[in-house]
Amino acid sequence: MTESVIQLPTLGESVFDTYDRIRSRGPVVPVTLPGDVAAWAAVSHRAVSELLAADGTLFSKNARNCPALHDGTVPADWPMRALTDIDHMLNLDGADHRRLRKTIGQAFTPARVAAMEPRIRQIANELIDQFATETGEVDLISAYTTPLPVRVICDLFGVEQADEPKIRDWVVTITSPVATGEQTAAAMGAMVAHMGALLEAKRRVPGDDLTSALLAANADNDLTDEELVTILWVVITAGHETTVYLLGNAVVALCENPSQLDKAITGDRWRDVVEEALRYRSPLCTAFIRYAREDVTIAGVDLPAGAMVVWYGGIGRDHEEYPDADVFDIDRSAHDQLAFGRGPHFCLGAPLARLESAIALSTLFERFPKLELACPASELSYGPQIITAGPQQVPVRLRH
Ligand code: HEM
After folding, report:
1. For 192, what's the count of Cα atoms within 13 Å in the CB-facing half-sphere?
2. What are the pLDDT digits (tens) for 271-289?
3. CA 206 → CA 193, 198, 226, 234, distances in Å?
4. Closest ligand 1 atom number to CA of residue 356
5. CATH number of the domain that residue 214 is part of
6. CB–CB of 82/76 below 8 Å?
7. Domain region containing 324
8. Best probe residue, ligand 1, of 232, 242, 289 (max atoms within 8 Å of C-beta)
9. Does any domain span residue 1?
């Protein structure tokens, strides 16, 4: 019997379990996205490699190249349009994409990332100092893995600390699989207005921040203000949403594998922990949509022209690519992995994500080397998720 098309997300099931089911059905599988929109999910390492290799040729990231989004097949109020219908970096191909990426790339340099190290360490320690310790228990998602990346990215762009909760709330709504079209549009509108004001403020009084550096990189006015604002919200969103869950997933993996945690602490192996966590449990669930420009075959599966294709960030668990894929092992060399994508859209923030995650984990476990989960890992709650994936709470006991 053929299993019916799988819905993303599937009610009552964690996104990891849903994808385990999807994977057993083949490398590229029909799914429905929230709002009952028909799409395909690429779920094997080979399928995703082939898909990314065809970026800008057989596949477009530009919604204009998807008939279903314009011929009435997909409703005008589809909530995911807040992400698909805007001309931002993740939604453009070729020269249009390079134009945007070049300007932010000139400002967001490796030196700027490296210079963040002491500040990230300071933020990590400040958050740990604020843990309420009467019970010795804390929820790491709300007390650490969320505020840390939010503060790092806001700090980087010169966003006021008082505005961090608003930024987080907007991003939660924009990336939510259960928000209505009206809710996502309202959150997007508010975030865009806030970024417009930030741009103006930095234009008037430049500072030592990435927004000011972006303006300086755009001195020849190649990009419009609207494009600069779009860059700001995209990078601020992408720059923390995934890291929140990477940290949550990594803490759970380390607590479940104490010998790996010992190895990380004694050998200062936090960079390897981050690489293995990216492979073992990627925080990116469903990557942005690509549109088939013509009939195309991916990993042996035929897709029709116009097909909407997403890819699964959890392909690090593909058994054909990784022996013992379900074992968390920081000695594994997974450096060829696709957790940050590949090709023209390779993650712009990968160096920052790697640096801040290593610092966040090392600081936490250096202060609490015997930290343990306060409930069995099987009881952790995973809400309905689609773009990112990770636990909604990670209650831990803080032990030295
Ligand atoms: C654990 C953390 C992260 C993961 C797993 C991750 C993953 C990814 C992946 C897979 C892509 C490519 C998507 C595609 O091909 O459709 C991507 C793109 C992107 N990421 Fe990340 N990311 C992370 C952190 C960050 C951070 C910290 C920033 C910014 C500071 C960032 C900014 C971006 C941007 C702007 C793009 C779009 C690049 C383009 O289209 O040219 N990401 N990320």
Report:
1. 15
2. 999 999 999 999 999 878 9
3. 19, 11, 19, 21
4. 27
5. 1.10.630.10
6. no
7. 6-397
8. 242
9. no
